[in-house]
Amino acid sequence: MAASIKLSTVLALLTCLSTSIQFCLAGDSDNLYDFCPTDMTHQKIFINGFPCKDPQNVTASDFKSSLLNEAGDTDNFYRSSMTFATAAEFPGLNTLGLSAARIDIEVDGTVMPHAHPRATEMIFIRAGVVVAGFVDSSNQVFQTRLDEGGVFVFPKGLLHYCFNAGFEQATIFSVLNSQNPGLASIAGAMFGSNGADAKVMLMEKLKSKGDLNGVSSVDLFG
């Protein structure tokens, strides 16, 4: 009887541990079909993801996108642009746990600190010279210079940024491991639309401190 109780206890603990690990590792849900291109005709249905198109109506064009072909509009305060291709714009990504982006940064341009709460992002420098960095949960900054062909990873949910450190426009492509990574902007949240002076000050801090590795985010953003 005692052995039976111990065995039951062990099995229960193993079950709990297995469940906990699955929750810790969970990202986007695994797909249940070969593919599930987004059906935007049912936009009033609210589910965790998007409805699937009728398989009979799926074509090769659902898996192709030209959203990232052209440079974005950098005629703005930050002299930069971010163009995303998520499952909302690129039907073939639905249920696959992926999205992509293109970032264009003019000379002296900056992508202000922001985070993707549901995704890790890996960037690839297509052209130009870029300085990229992120802030970890201990408020330490990790920053590096990237030349053409360089790759850098922003861990999931962490605040990150980049700016043009060269003398020509920089082009970056990135892949994120969520079909809907989300975007939380510190500039928009802290300064709103009327905080131009504060935004300029933050941009100057990012560019003027040189090597920011190990610097506290309090010194950077505080």
From TrEMBL:
GO cellular component: apoplast; plasmodesma
UniProt lineage: Eukaryota, Viridiplantae, Streptophyta, Embryophyta, Tracheophyta
Record's protein name: Germin-like protein
A single GO molecular function term of this UniProt record: manganese ion binding
Reaction(s) the record says it catalyses: 2 superoxide + 2 H(+) = H2O2 + O2
Entry keyword Amino-acid biosynthesis: no
GO biological process: plasmodesmata-mediated intercellular transport; regulation of root development
Subunit structure: Monomer. In the absence of manganese, it forms tetrameric and pentameric forms which show superoxide dismutase activity.
PROSITE patterns: GERMIN (PS00725)
Organism: Sesamum angolense
SUPFAM superfamilies associated with the record: RmlC-like cupins
UniProt record similarity statement: Belongs to the germin family.
